[in-house]
Amino acid sequence: MFIRELPEQDGWVLGTEHSLYAIGLGEDGLPVQRYWGPTLPEQDWPRMLGSTTPRWRTSSSRPSEADDEVLAAGGLRWGAVGLQLEFPDGRNELELRFTGSAVERAPDEATLTLTLEDRFSPVAVRLRSRVHSGHDVIERWLELEHGGTPDEHVLVRRLDSANWPLPEQDRYRVSSVHGHWGAENQLVRAELPFGELGFTSRTGTTGHHANPWLMIDDGSAREESGRVWAVTLAWSGSWRMIAQRRPEGGVSVTAGAGHESVTRRLRGGEVVGTPSSYGIVTEGGFGATSRKLHTFSTRRLRPTTGALQPVLYNSWEATEFSVTEGGQMALADRAAAIGAELFVVDDGWFGRRTHDKAGLGDWYPNPEKFPDGLHALVAHVRSRSMKFGLWVEPEMVNRDSDLYAAHPDWVLHFRNLTRRELRNQLVLNFARDDVREWAWGWLSSLVTEYDIDYLKWDMNRPFSQAGWPENTEDPGSLWSGHTEAVYSIMERLRELKPSLLIESCSGGGGRVDLGMMRRVDMFWTSDNTDALDRQSIQHGFSQVYPATTMSNWVTDSPNPLTGRDIPLSYRFHVAMAGTLGIGGNLLEWSDDDLRAAAELTAQYKTIRDAVQFGDLYRLGGESGVDLSAVQYVLEGRVVVLAYEPRRSLGSGRRLFRLAGLDPDAAYVDEQTGDRFSGRWLMVQGIDLWRGADTNPRSGTVRFSRADFCSSLITLDREDGAA
């Protein structure tokens, strides 16, 4: 990685392992992007920095604004706005001028800062761009500083992190995900239309309906071939991304926190920074894009880099609110017997929590369920060689709670308006100092008193009536302040106990993003644990987020949400594609199921290093529909999980061509002892379904003529040539 300043050309070049990002000064003296693509020889840099893309220009259009690094409102710009302020005199435009640059270098990163200043106010804008050693990801964000006195202020109406211009090409195809509760991360690829295509969440969280990332290609990219650009945003509150495609030419993606009408006040002497936006370009299709993002996330963002995730058991689906000390101990015994390493008590352990209408906010063990607190249960769990975890929902409160009775002003609300509940809950305003310190107080005490190993941090409803009557000067700051407070508390908990694991949950997969990735170890992917539905959900999740952060459960059959009956081995094999968890009612599982579960859990432990930290290759057809597979490669270890949800006489047995292997090495199938060259496995392929028909419940089966056929294959590279 490097950053080169070229003052004679008014330019800067940022280099990653395989790409360049070039910035120059445009016709108005402001920074524009000159290039973003694969590495070029240095002899081409002058041409790269001096080139401009010819586009139609008329009296009513300025198409070159698509190349601007900052989409500031005003002047001759009519497209999407990425930066807009409102001054006390009513002015809502900036007249910026470039005033200088600086480069900071460290052993594993380098940062370029370009400073712009408003001609008529003490407002400065700093564009910051960072490259990371060993990665192709470019990080960009923006800082806004008010250099006036404390009695001066401006209203920030829009403050995006970055605008990412894309090179000219004949076609543009955009990849994104959509969804809802129980069906998150549904991948879609479609032609990018002319105009502005917006993706957003107005819920106060990342949201179920979209996720803050886009990929763009020319329509020809495939899983393992073609040039792909990806843009992501590391923010866990409301957000917005707009892909602009101008008829005169020019495409860009602008990304930032907040949504329309959300404002915040910036006073003299204050500096506000945006969340980071990350961009990457690859030549290896969607698969290479995912792998590079996964590697960057696990090595640069995730707080517990390199640590394997434990196999957990969660008691929610077994008990729901009917939590008792004895019942949890009985489940812990069964969980330990099948190989769980972490036992988690979900909702129902605290306050007057016997149903979902009471107790949220009162975070002490229910005295009827746990007469002596949680100490006996924690000791019992640890005596079974498991860690102990709890479900919490710090950001929510029930009306029927001691907390709400004492502090009704702590929730988001407007005076005199109805406080509208969802799931019988109201949202606490974490932007308030008193709410934030209350949450830190009981969370830190809970972790300390019981030496908690894991917290499942849930947030089950979006914002509504997002008012803060006591804050008359800057009520809109609650949107960002809430998210920043959640970040802060999570970071303080990690300082208190560095080994603490935190899982992010939000009504399923409603708060999954690279901002939360910095603070948590894993994400609850969806409340829908049906193994068939989970395949498409996990496929969409894997486009950006690594398997080690994807929490997957094996639950009862028929599935409690869909009613679908799926064999135990298939349920396990789908859940093995990330961080394995078990969430069924083990007290009602048969002895055969418990034995099979123990075998399958033991199998997972032999492959989880490759699954959680290996390179992911998505093979075959559409996940959850056709014959498909996910393959992981970690050094010389190869793991393949294959799925065929429906058998048909119209489709015969197929060979699967593997990927990412050493063509000149030999690979040995652990189950059969068969020896293959890497070239054979990638060119000819392997029969995933060979072997005799056996009981699919055992987990060692290779082929079943019934629906829901699945297989686990492991291969090891031999030393020496094939």
Automatic annotation (TrEMBL):
<dbReference type="InterPro" id="IPR031705">
    <property type="entry name" value="Glyco_hydro_36_C"/>
</dbReference>
<feature type="region of interest" description="Disordered">
    <location>
        <begin position="47"/>
        <end position="67"/>
    </location>
</feature>
<dbReference type="InterPro" id="IPR013785">
    <property type="entry name" value="Aldolase_TIM"/>
</dbReference>
<protein>
    <recommendedName>
        <fullName>Alpha-galactosidase</fullName>
        <ecNumber>3.2.1.22</ecNumber>
    </recommendedName>
</protein>
<dbReference type="Pfam" id="PF16875">
    <property type="entry name" value="Glyco_hydro_36N"/>
</dbReference>
<dbReference type="InterPro" id="IPR017853">
    <property type="entry name" value="GH"/>
</dbReference>
<feature type="compositionally biased region" description="Low complexity">
    <location>
        <begin position="51"/>
        <end position="63"/>
    </location>
</feature>
<feature type="domain" description="Glycosyl hydrolase family 36 C-terminal">
    <location>
        <begin position="629"/>
        <end position="715"/>
    </location>
</feature>
<dbReference type="InterPro" id="IPR002252">
    <property type="entry name" value="Glyco_hydro_36"/>
</dbReference>
<keyword id="KW-0326">Glycosidase</keyword>
<feature type="domain" description="Glycosyl hydrolase family 36 N-terminal">
    <location>
        <begin position="29"/>
        <end position="261"/>
    </location>
</feature>
<dbReference type="Pfam" id="PF16874">
    <property type="entry name" value="Glyco_hydro_36C"/>
</dbReference>
<dbReference type="InterPro" id="IPR050985">
    <property type="entry name" value="Alpha-glycosidase_related"/>
</dbReference>
<comment type="similarity">
    <text>Belongs to the glycosyl hydrolase.</text>
</comment>
<dbReference type="Pfam" id="PF02065">
    <property type="entry name" value="Melibiase"/>
</dbReference>
<dbReference type="InterPro" id="IPR013780">
    <property type="entry name" value="Glyco_hydro_b"/>
</dbReference>
<dbReference type="InterPro" id="IPR038417">
    <property type="entry name" value="Alpga-gal_N_sf"/>
</dbReference>
<keyword id="KW-0378">Hydrolase</keyword>
<dbReference type="InterPro" id="IPR031704">
    <property type="entry name" value="Glyco_hydro_36_N"/>
</dbReference>
